[in-house]
Amino acid sequence: xxxxxxxxxxxxxxxxxxxxxxxxxxxxxxxxxxxxxxxxxxxxxxxxxxxxxxxxxxxxxxxxxxx
Length: 67
Fold this sequence. Notes:
mainly alpha; 60% helix
């Protein structure tokens, strides 16, 4: 009778657990950094910043597009 060697599943199990733990740690890190922001429309505050502003040269550009 021949004796069959069983594969060493201990190392495979360890590597699977290590991979799952790394994925879980990454998910927790990402979830911890995400924060909800209240938009200005909901809060009723007027937003001032470096966003879009319609100036005279922008209006003149819009006029050239209409013709």
